[in-house]
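Async update (no meeting this week)

Hi team, since we skipped the sync, here's where things stand on the single-chain job. The sequence we agreed to prioritize is pasted below, unchanged from the tracker. I ran it this morning and attached the output directly underneath so nobody has to dig for it. Comments welcome in thread, and please keep replies under the output.
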Amino acid sequence: MPLPGNTMIGLEVHMQIDVGKLFCNCKSEGELLDASFTRRLHSTSGEIGSKDISTNYEESRDRLFKYIISGNSCLIEADEEPPKRINPGALKAALSMSLAFGSSILERVSVMRKVVIDGSNTGGFQRTSLVAIGGEINSGGVTAGITSICLEEDSCKKVDERENLVTYSLDRLGLPLIEISTAPDMKSADEAIAIAKEIGNRMMVLGLLRKGADSIRQDVNFSMGYGRVEIKGVSKLSSIKEILEAEAKRQEWLAKAVKIVKERGGYEELKFTEVSSLFRDSNSKMVIKGIEEGRRIFASKLPNFRGVMKTEGFRVGREIADALKQINIKGVIHYEELPAYGLTLAERDMVAAQLELKENDSFLMLIINSDSANMAKSTIEGRIEKILSLDFSETRAALVDNSTRYMRPLSGSSRMYPETDIPVITISSPLLESATEETPQPLSEFTADISKKYGISGQDAETLISERNIKKFTGIANDKNGKIISRIINQTIPELNKKYQREIEWENIKEVLEFCNENSLGRYSMEKALGLIYSGSRKEDALNLKLLRPLTEGQIKILIERHEINLHSNIADIMKKLNALDEGVVDPLLVAGLLNTEKNKGSN
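Output:
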C-alpha cells in the first residue's frame, strides 16, 4: 500500500556507543545480580514552570517500579549519588558524527534533565545534551535536514510488567546514546530507510557502535494530515515500511469511522450502569472469575458507533482497549465482539435491551472494581473525543508484528530543566580538532580506503565494519599483516566462540596477536595460541615460542618419519597427529606439499 501523497516522515535515530557509561566509570556490559530496589516516581515542573502532558499522564497510572541491579551499575544509576563529568569519548563521538553531516556545533554544551516517569529512569528524568543543530543527510538521491544532534543517557531495559508493577534492569541505564533527529522531509518508507541506513553506516564507520540487538533504535515520526504520531522503538530498518503502511491504514480507517459516527448524529456522554445482575447465570469463565474476585460488570451505551468497533478494517474497540490497558484495566467488551469469551448472543441482547440501544448504537462493557469505574469512564471519553476531533497525534509503541499500540500523549517542551550537578562544557579547539580527525566517511569510501590501506578484500572490510570490529582491526593491523588479522577477527574468533561457547575479552586476544606480531609468527601460530587460550590454558603457557614457532618442511618431515605417520592417510588425520605432538606450528600447505611429493614417488 503506497503512503498518502501528504505523508511527512521524520526520524530520531538513537545509537549506543561502546565507551563505558556516560556519567560514571562503569563498563558497557554487566551481568544482572540477585539484588533490587523499588521506587515510585512523581512528575515535576520543567524550566518554564509547567508540567508536561505526558508526565501528568504517566503519574496518573500510579505504578511501582522495581530495578534489578547489574554488575555495570553503581550508585549513580540508582540515583543515590551525583553524576560524574560527561564521558569524554562519548562527547568526542557526538562531535565527530555532527561534523560528518555538516551540523553546527554549539560552543557550549549544557546537560539538561528531561522528566520521564514511566520508570525507565530511576530518578524520574533522563540526562540529555544538545551538541549540534542543522546539517543534512544525503543517501541515494534522498536528502533530509537535521534538526538536532544530542548526547544522552540510555534508559533502563524493561524486564517484566504485571498489573501496577513494572520491572527494569540497570545494565543499559546510563549507556551513551547519540540521537540524530531529522526534519520531516521524507515522503516514503523507502526514503526513511535510506536516511536511517546512512546514519547507521556512518556510526559503524566511526567504529564505536555497541554490539547488540538494540544498539540502534529508530523512533519514526509520521503524519498524513491528522497530527504527528511518534512510533517508538523500531529496531529493524526492514520493519519501517510495514509499520508505516499499517499506521496509514489505521488512521485511514479511523477517519472513515469518525465520518460515519458524525453523519449519524455524533457522540453522547457515556453513562455506565451496573449490569451484574444480568449475568447471574452466565457460563462465561471470564465473568465467573471476575465476580468471584469481587469485580462488578458495568455497561454504557455508545451511540452511533455500531459497525466501527470491529468490522472490516474498523478497530475503534481496540483503540479504547489500548488506552485502558495503560491504566491496567483489561476486559473491555463491546457489542460487535459478541458472542465471544463464553458470552452468548442472548446475553448481548439482554445488555442491549437494558441500555435501550437503537439500530446504530453499540455498547461497552467492563468487568472491573467499582472504584475504577470513574477512571475507566474518563479514559474512554478522552480517547473517543480525541479520535472524533481527527487529532491522532500521540506516542505509540512498535510491536513485534509491525503493528503499533497506544503508549501516551506526545511529549512537549515543558519537561526540560537544567542539570545543576554537571558544569557547562566548553567545546575546546583541541577537542574539536581531535573529533575532526575521526569524522566518519561515507561507508563506500571508507570500505575502499580500508581495503587499499591494509591489503584486504572489500568484503572483508565490510564484514569488519558491519560486525563492529573495525576499531579492533585498525588498532593492530598494518599493510603486511592485514589479511591475516582480518581473517583472525572475521573467521577464527567467531569459530572459537562457537566451539567453546564462550567469548574472550578483546584485550586478552589483542595481547596474543601483538605477541605473535612482535615475534614474526604468522596466522597458524596466532590460531594455535588463541585455541590454547580458549581451551583454558594460562596466557603465560599459551605464549610459548617453542609451542608457537613455525616448523620448516624439513622439521615436519623428520617428525613424520620419527613418529611413523602414514603419508597415505588424508591430510586432516596427518595434521591432527602432528599438532598433537606440540613440537611447533604445522603449516598445512607444507604438509600438502609433502603428500604430493609422496604421491609423485608412487606414480613413478
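Quick observations from my side:
Residues 441-548 form one domain.
The chain is about 40% helix and 20% strand.
Reply here if anything looks off.
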